[in-house]
Amino acid sequence: MPVATQIPVPMRALLAGARRKESALLELTRQLVLAESPSDGKAAADACVALVAARASALGGRVKLHKQRHFGNALEARFGPRSKGGRILLLGHLDTVWPLGTLKQMPCRIAKGRIWGPGVLDMKAGVAMALTAIEMLTEASLLEREVVLLLTSDEEVGSPASHSIMEKVASSCSVVYVLEPAQKLAYKTARKGTGNWRIDIRGVAAHAGVDFENGASALRELARVIETVSGWTDLKRGLTVNVGLAGGGSKTNVVPAEAWAEVDVRMAHKGDGPRIERKFAALRAKDKRCSLMVTGGINRPPMERTRGTVRLYEQARTLAAEMGLDLPEAATGGASDGNFTSALGIPTLDGMGAVGEGAHALHESVLIEHLAPRTALLAGLLAGRG
Predict the structure, then answer these.
(1) Is the pLDDT of residue 118 over 80?
(2) Is 259 within 8 Å of 248 (Cβ atoms)?
(3) Would residue 1 count as lying in a domain?
(4) Is 251 helix (H, G, I), strand (E, B) or coil?
(5) Residues in Cβ contact with 223 at an 8 Å cutoff, skipping those fewer than 6 apart
(6) Is 382 helix (H, G, I), strand (E, B) or coil?
(7) Neighbours of 386 (CB within 10 A)
């Protein structure tokens, strides 16, 4: 990432400051990775939240914990002058998809220009970047707007406990910056919405050789249903319906009495959510001897490419250009908590965290060379540049 020789202040100063803090940023990222925090491990997640809370307090943050019963606590930390409006929300999560003990076979290490480890890209490096950007602005007395850092512990499982918290916090903010990983080098201006359904079918068991005609195959009925729901895919609209898991039956010589399937739906347009929900609700078994039960629904609405989000992106691209950086724009089929805030009508810019590869995979890693420039860019946006 080449840097121009003539960079207007304060971006030049912010970039230099971020480079000076790169070692500390890496160490903070390492500490967060070592604090394993699976979504289903409340005690471990709470310990990671406590680590960040202590760091936020040391930076002068006004810290509040939103305690949860079944998931890790959510952390809310406010920095800068108190205000009733115009706040900036920095949104992220501390939970990961990795179970406790993953560090034994996937240790946190720095090698080949990368920092490796479970959750480093998604998204503990992004959290460390946010704290470093706030620290830089605080030290330089450049934090003139109130910044709210909200970190949850259940994002990887759909944010069931923190959904209402983030909507309440976001409702008093004018913009939202999401600390999820970049898409290659790009900031994300659109994300698909997500939905999950389970279909359970009960048929009538019978001996496949002696009493076949008196059976009602749940698997055959499921095959019909799979064809039906798969036909709802509309690639031109960015709508996909994927039956990812299915099963049923007991023995090859038994007409199967039970079958099931789990379905993932992705949608680019908000209006497609209610329409798909109605379609699932209207499913009926063709064989009247079978019964069909559908559960599930929309988890996250789409984050559509709005004028407000595009305006944020253009501001970011301008600041990046001042540092000699090209900042692409991207849309993705994956969802984040930014979907929730965007659905409230709040301009939301996503993918502002680290650059790397292997999220949710054994080769998860962050490219160190991009940490300082992207931290400086985040600091510039928090400082109101652009």
Answers:
(1) yes
(2) yes
(3) no
(4) coil
(5) none
(6) helix
(7) 16
Beta strands 187-191 and 206-207, pairing class: unpaired
Please give the structure tokens belonging to residue 204: 């009538």
- CB environment 304-330: b (16+ within 10 A), e (fewer): bbbebbeebbebbbebbebbbbebebb
> In the predicted model, is pLDDT for residue 224 greater than 50?
yes
β-strand pairing of 348-349 with 109-111: unpaired
One domain for residues 211 and 274: yes
Host domain of residue 186: 11-191+303-382
In whole angstroms, how large is the CA radius of gyration of the chain? 24
pLDDT tens per residue across span 320-359? 999 999 999 999 999 999 999 999 999 999 999 999 999 9
- Which string of b and e fits 190-207 if b means at least 16 CB within 10 Å? bbbbbbebebbbbbbbbe
Q: Left (φ > 0), alpha (ψ -120 to 50) or beta: where does 263 sit?
A: beta
> In angstroms, what CA-CA distances link 125 with 73, 295, 316, 366?
19, 36, 19, 8
- The verdict on residue 3 lying in a domain is no
Same domain, 332 and 289: no
Q: pTM of the full predicted structure?
A: 0.92
